[in-house]
Amino acid sequence: MEPLEESDLVEGLSVNYMKYSGLWKIINDYRVTGKKNILLKIGLLISFLFPGHYVMFSLSSIFFSEVDFQAATMFVLNPCSGLQSVLKVLVFWFGLHSQCQILNMMKKDFLRCIPKDKAEEAKEIMKKIAIRSNYFCIAGISANAICVLVWNFIPILRSQYFREELNIKLDNMETNTPNKILGGGYPFNYTITPWSECVYVFEFIVCAWAGFVISLHECILIQLVMLLWGHIQVINFVLSNIRRSDFLVKRNLPTRLSKIKEDDINSSEAVNKRMNDHLLNCVKDHQLTMKVGDQIRDLYNFLITAQLGTGLLIMIISVFHFQYYGTKDALFTVKFVVYLGYCMVENVLYCYCGAYLEAASEEVGMGFYSGEWYKGDANFRKIGQMLMVRSLRPVSLIAVQLYPVNLTTLTSLLQLTYSSSALMSRFVNE
Fold first, then answer.
1. Helix ranges (DSSP H) in 325-363
2. Whole-angstrom Cα distance, residue 97 to residue 298?
3. What sign results for the dihedral spanned by CA atoms 268, 269, 272, 278?
4. For the chain, which terminus, N or C, has the lower number of CB atoms within 10 Å?
């Protein structure tokens, strides 16, 4: 594979997050050499050393610590994000070859069926969708960055310096309570110096790295799904604007055709052949988008399943803590509002992108039907029928190898979050 060049990308598409994170070099090095470079190996190592070990410590601490129901939920809550970051790095590591193939969608010449007279309109469609995907990425990165900053900064506000030197007390935390960033425990006494400082640094790195990895891979998936949606939209646009008159050769003939009668060039058989060839190109491009959609589904099915599963758990526990404990501690409330926000934004973006993709792929058949299909010959209509049959199987994001990720899924997640958190609150009250 050839390396990706920024000049070859869809106009309006921003890949700054890839360039600044080193992901651009990782991808291009693999596309050229077929080998994973040192940056990716370092990233995998960091993911296992920090988020990986934190997940192990936090979950195992349930068995050697005496905790109440609130603490037990905290032991499960934060490891979900750490687990997400580790899984995203692993999926990227093992699926890097497929990832590099799918990234060809970022090229502006990905489709071959666009006529020259419609190239500008198709370019404008892709530009608008690319810009929208940039906004989605900014929303995801912003939510994650706010969450990381708030969680890492709150222990500073709770520190002994703020309490004793500045006489600032922003919560009801007892002085002997461990001042940590994340929930969970460790198999040693981390309330004394220097272990308390070491734990803070460790959890700071865990939180920052998890936010970085989650943001990075969230943006990749969003842009890929949005671009696939854009390419299907372009195919739909081309199909709906098929006009028989566009396949008539104009009067100003080239020199090499000057001896051929215009009647022969614009005969019914010649025009039908040009229409059929053009429609075949559209079918091939539609087949290509369906193949890419299957690749995305195969590559990300496990990751999306894990994301929705852990995301649902995060939302349930966050809402539960906000409902039951939030009024007792202002900083506690802020922590869980931003934590819930980060997870909600990611799930909402995935579901909206999946809905866009599914709806566009279902409209391909109607796009052909909107054109002048009735002016083509029998072969033209047969090709169109095959295209319409193919469009009955929509391209979509899938979770658990079965459920499409769309707005219906989002509604179900929100309903389950509310009902489960309410059930937990009732259990605690009783």
1. 330-362
2. 13
3. negative
4. C
The single residue listed with the structure tokens 């004394």 is 192
Nearest to 14 by CA among 212, 211, 227: 227
| 47-69 pLDDT per residue, tens | 999 999 999 988 887 776 666 67
Cβ pair 133, 34 in contact under 8 A: no
Please state the φ and ψ torsions of residue 254, each to the nearest 5 degrees: -65, 160
399 membership: H or E segment, kind and range? strand 398-399
Q: 124 in the Ramachandran plot: left (φ > 0), alpha (ψ -120 to 50) or beta?
A: alpha
Q: One-letter amino acid identity for 80?
A: C
Distance CA 307, CA 304 (A): 5
Q: Where are the alpha helices (DSSP H) in 158-267?
A: 160, 195-240, 262-265
Gap between the Cα atoms of 108 and 249, Å rounded = 28
> What is the C-alpha to C-alpha distance for residues 4 and 314, in angstroms, rounded to an integer?
37
Half-sphere CA count of 353, side-chain side, radius 13 A: 32
Instruction: Report the sign of the C-alpha dihedral through residues 38, 40, 46, 48, in that order.
Output: negative
Per-residue model confidence as pLDDT tens digits over 262-284: 557 888 889 999 999 999 999 99
Residues forming a β-bridge with 52 = none
**Cis before residue 187, ω within 30 degrees of 0?**
no
Distance CA 405, CA 217 (A): 17
Q: What is the pTM of this model?
A: 0.90
Q: Please say whether the beta carbons of 54 and 77 come within 8 A.
A: no
